[in-house]
Amino acid sequence: MAEALDAAVARLCRYLGDGVVGALADPRTVEVYVNEDGDVRVAAEGKRRSTGERLAPEQVRSFLRAAANWGGRHLEGAASLDVELPQGQPFDGARLHGEMPPTVRMPVFSIRVLPRRIYRLREYVDAGALGISGLTVLSTALTERWNVLVGGSTGSGKTTFLNAMLAELAERCPGDRLILLDGWSKTYAMTGWRLGWSLWPPALYDKARKLAVNVWSCVNAPTQFAGLAALTGPQD
User: Fold this and answer.
1) What is the dihedral of CA 142, 27, 125, 47, to 10 degrees?
2) pLDDT digit string (tens) for 27-53?
3) Taking residues 89-99, what's their average pLDDT?
4) Checking phi first, is residue 106 left (phi over 0); if not, alpha (psi -120 to 50) or beta?
5) How far is CA 126 from the centre of its chain?
6) Which of 29, 42, 150, 184 has its C-alpha lying 20 to 30 A from 158's C-alpha?
């Protein structure tokens, strides 16, 4: 299994080239993407820039084929691809989305890098991105259970900021405020199976169970077995 992983990583890196691999390894990078012009662009620290690297359409197509093979997908005849890239350097489980003709003129892709660290709200203050008054308002909102809406354009740092808010919430109100909703789609590349899970505080569990039973009843048996196989199978 380790040899297969190493071979898959080496193949993917070969098609991307050293420039793209280096950008993925940069801890500041949150996204690497290639549009129809073949220019390799990077999103980091709230800004987007060209790396000066270019990938030919056949390189992009070969990379997407290799990624599809890694994820157990068939790219031929498909217009798009969503797959989780291998764990470990340089991908670290990053999420790949690719598009192929005829939906686009040339093959394109975007690699979203998973957060490498969780920033704290105090760090936003130290960096000058958040004032003391803003920190006070957000801290009060979390403690007093206010609704908080986080919005922004693509690549503006919404997810990074939400992670900071969740870290603050976990520190201020451990054990009784957090509800986790997640699914198999990203981790196990099961988009479309409509299978998810949740973690609830004990006081809310029975209410959530009754809601589930009466709203969507039960996931079909084949999907449940598929989810079980994903959890109990190889995790690399």
Assistant:
1) -100
2) 888 899 999 999 999 988 778 889 888
3) 89
4) beta
5) 27
6) 184
pLDDT of residue 234: 80
3-state secondary structure of 143: helix
What one-letter code names the amino acid at 227? G
pLDDT at 177 (0 to 100): 66
Contacts 24+ apart (CB under 8 A), 30-34: 30/112, 30/113, 30/155, 30/160, 31/110, 31/111, 31/112, 31/113, 31/155, 32/110, 32/111, 32/113, 33/108, 33/109, 33/110, 33/111, 34/60, 34/108, 34/109, 34/110
Burial (CB < 10 A; 0-12, 13-18, 19+), residue 67, is buried
Mean pLDDT over each residue of the chain, to the nearest integer: 86
Which runs of consecutive H residues, i.e. helices, occur in the chain? 2-16, 18-25, 57-70, 121-126, 132-144, 158-172, 202-215, 221-232
The two tokens of residue 141 are 């909102």
Reading the block at residue 197, the tokens are 């899970």
Per-residue model confidence as pLDDT tens digits over 164-205: 998 888 888 776 667 888 888 877 878 778 888 888 888 888
Phi/psi region, residue 148 (left: phi>0; alpha: psi -120 to 50; beta: rest), is beta
Asked whether the beta carbons of 219 and 228 are under 8 A apart, the reply is no
Q: Per-residue pLDDT for 162 more than 60?
A: yes
Element (H, E) at 29: strand 29-34
Distance CA 81, CA 188 (A): 14
